[in-house]
Specification:
With 281 residues, the protein is of the alpha/beta class. It is 46% helix and 12% strand.
Length: 281
């Protein structure tokens, strides 16, 4: 690590060259680009929409940092549907400056030629970059292991208004056999690089998968130093190695890390040099 920016591990570079890399994008990349994170959305919902006075248990859920707050979203939507819809719409509104940042990072990610990009984000930053065709998109109904092939983009939670918002839908999705098979194949057969993901309880069982050939299945996660300090003193979470960036100044080092990974030494620098030598350049 130099200046608070972690290096991209050699095994991730090797996986990219061997068509074994999957990039998993979480809400952190959207927040770094400029969209509000879920904590800000939750605070705004709590301020502008009222929870029913007889739902004290929901107030306790609201304080926790886990997926149970989907239940509170449902209650607020039921009580203040108009205000809820307004806040969610404004939270997903994309500004040009947000898109410019995101586009720069996604171009770098695309240059690694991952076999697939998987994301839990429901905002429309990725579709708005124009780097991928709609025919490459896959959704909840398309989560089959055989669909994991080059150039596919998997929106696990859907996009925008079609995204997963209810507590029941989230639970059903992660319990479904097709979802489990998809994750089994992904974590058990490929090198997964998490960017902008928080590691919540639901990942624990999924990430305990042991691959037939573990040498091809190293997993890595770019996470902020604050989250690392709060969640673990270890460099690993099950089969995932943490790549920790210093976030004491916000998201600056998040973007700088991705940009560093997009410069020398390039993922394919050795291949380029070998080809140059062959033709006598």
């Amino acid at each position: 690590m130099v200046n608070g920016l972690p290096d991209l591990p050699p095994k991730a570079r090797e996986a990219a060259k061997n068509k074994r890399l999957i990039v998993f994008l979480g809400s952190g990349i959207s927040s770094a680009a400029g969209l509000p994170d879920w904590k800000k959305v939750r605070r705004r919902l709590a301020t502008e929409c009222s929870l029913p006075t007889d739902k004290e248990h929901l107030r306790e859920i609201w304080k926790r940092d886990n997926d149970e707050y989907y239940e509170v979203f449902e209650e607020i939507r039921g009580e203040s549907a108009e205000s809820y819809a307004k806040i969610i719409k404004e939270s997903l509104d994309i500004k040009q400056a947000d898109l410019i940042k995101y586009l720069k990072w996604l171009k770098i990610i695309k240059s690694w030629q991952p076999i697939a990009i998987v994301t839990t984000n429901i905002d429309e930053l990725l579709p708005n970059t124009g780097l991928y065709e709609k025919g490459q998109y896959r959704y909840q109904k398309d989560l089959y292991p055989q669909e994991l092939r080059e150039g596919k983009i998997f929106f696990l939670h859907g996009i925008g208004d079609q995204g997963i918002w209810s507590h029941g839908d989230v639970k059903d999705f992660y319990r479904h056999d097709d979802t489990k098979a998809f994750f089994w194949n992904m974590f058990g057969s490929y090198c997964v690089l998490f960017i902008g993901c928080s590691f919540k309880d639901r990942w624990k069982n999924l990430l305990e998968i042991k691959a037939p050939d573990i040498s091809q299945c190293y997993h890595y996660a770019l996470i902020p130093s604050q989250e690392h300090a709060e969640r673990s003193t270890s460099r690993f979470f099950n089969n995932v190695e943490f790549l920790v960036y210093d976030n004491s100044t916000g998201y600056d080092n998040f973007g700088l890390t991705i940009e560093k990974w997009g410069t020398k030494p390039n993922l394919f620098e050795n291949d380029i040099m070998m080809n140059a030598n062959r033709v006598g350049i």
